[in-house]
Specification:
By secondary structure, this protein is of the alpha+beta class. The chain has helices at residues 12-20, 42-47, 67-73, 95-104, 131-150, 176-179, 195-198, 227-235, 287-299, 304-310, 320-325; strands at 2-8, 25-33, 81-89, 113-114, 117-118, 125-128, 159-162, 166-168, 213-219, 246-250, 268-273, 276-282, 332-334, 341-344, 348-349, 357-358. The protein folds into 2 domains: 2-197, Peptide Methionine Sulfoxide Reductase, Chain A (2-Layer Sandwich), CATH 3.30.1060; 202-299, Glutaredoxin (3-Layer(aba) Sandwich). It contains 11 helices and 16 strands. It has a 6-stranded mixed β-sheet with strand order 7-6-1-3-2-8, covered by helices on one side. A 4-stranded mixed β-sheet has the order 10-9-11-12, with helices on one face. Strands 4-5 form a two-stranded antiparallel ribbon. Helix 4 runs parallel beside helix 5 (131-150). The protein starts with a strand and ends in a 12-residue tail after the last strand.
């Protein structure tokens, strides 16, 4: 049987390429879905990407709504999200395998973004075309939520609903990475696989170095028994969106690491490179203390980026970064350390000063009015 299902997991170029590589997938088309206006174009979804989204913590919240209640929810303009139509042969690949692949190739806990691609046009979504797909989406979502929770991730915010309409994107978006092999294709996956359910992985299972830079937070041997660890998670790690991997584990689960600091105190935050401790802190850290330490670790003390970030420094006029970023395409500039949005190119202007200039920062993000 030939069926269709629709996925949104960030920039559709990479999502399209991923599903095209799966045996049993007949066709993949990039396009737009989930919005409240007709005939969307790429320019439309970019223009409307800053509309505040309510998010979709669970499709269960929408089950049982009356037609009147559903109509009320559609009064406001809703933007479309970049979506791919996946046509597949059920005799060669199952719906469950495709949906599980969807969960694994992106981070479904990120609201209105995937990594540095920020905006409601990059929101996570599944649009089904039959009841079987719906049931599989909900059940696998529950399973993946358990896996995410075990790794310290937050709640899934994926939009899950029946498909209303799909508009194919412009021709230049179709098979983009096939025609441009070196094109933009970031990996936004969490690295968490459904196979971990089968292996019954529990908190405290041995972990090994990932290679390169990473952060390890040492917690208690019994999960949830350290109040300071829970506070550190609530105030710091649950909001962390940086590019350096961060994992939480009891000390007994460390395997293959070169750790010099004592790890009896929890939390102990250890900055690691290639499996070897670079710096560590025993006890809870404030958000300011954590990001200062992260800045030293990632940027290097005394470096120009470190000076700009922490010592009220300023890049030189017409510096290399200015030349690189002054004419970037539409998008969001994000903080190097936290991964949080800073400035939207929609508010960029040429001040003739030699510095990147914006009329305002991204609302409700990492800035302070003094």
């Amino acid at each position: 049987m030939i069926l269709e299902i629709f996925f949104a997991a960030g920039c559709f170029w990479g999502v399209e390429k991923n599903f095209e590589s799966i045996e049993g997938v007949v066709d993949v088309v990039s396009g737009y879905s989930g919005g409240s206006y007709e005939d969307p174009t790429y320019e439309d979804v970019l223009k409307n990407r800053r509309i505040q989204s309510e998010g979709f913590l669970s499709v269960l919240k929408n089950i049982g709504l009356s037609d009147e209640e559903k109509a009320k929810n559609k009064n406001a303009l809703i933007n479309h999200t970049e979506t791919v139509k996946v046509v597949y042969d059920t005799s060669q690949v199952s719906t469950e395998d495709l949906v599980k692949n969807f969960w694994e190739i992106h981070d479904p806990t990120q609201l209105d973004r995937q990594g540095n691609d920020v905006g409601n046009n990059y929101r996570s979504a599944i649009y089904w075309t039959n009841e079987d797909q719906k049931n599989i989406a909900i059940e696998t979502g529950r399973e993946y939520q358990q896996l995410l929770n075990s790794k310290g991730y937050g709640e899934i915010v994926t939009e899950m609903t029946a498909l209303e309409k799909f508009w194919p994107a412009e021709n230049y978006h179709q098979d983009y990475l096939l025609r441009n092999p070196n094109g933009y294709c970031p990996d936004h996956s969490t690295g968490i696989k459904f196979t971990e359910l089968a292996s019954n992985e529990q908190f405290g299972q041995d972990i090994e170095p990932l290679g390169g830079k990473e952060i390890i937070v040492i917690g208690p041997e019994v999960e949830g028994t350290c109040l300071f660890c829970l506070e550190f998670e609530r105030k710091v790690t649950s909001k962390y969106q940086g590019t350096i991997p961060l994992r939480s584990t009891p000390a007994s689960a460390l395997n293959g690491f070169e750790i010099e600091s004592r790890t009896w105190a929890t939390p102990t935050i250890i900055f690691i490179e290639d499996g070897r401790e670079i710096w560590a802190h025993q006890g809870i850290m404030s958000s300011e203390e954590f990001y200062r330490a992260l800045g030293d670790f990632k940027l290097g003390e005394g470096s120009e980026p470190h000076k700009v970030a922490f010592n009220e420094g300023t890049d030189k006029r017409f510096c290399v970064q200015y030349q690189i970023f002054k004419d970037t395409p539409e998008g969001i500039f994000v903080d190097k350390l936290s991964g949080r949005p800073l400035f939207d190119t929609a508010y960029r202007f040429d001040s003739k000063s030699g510095w990147l200039s914006f009329t305002q920062p991204v609302n409700n993000e990492v800035y302070e009015i003094v």
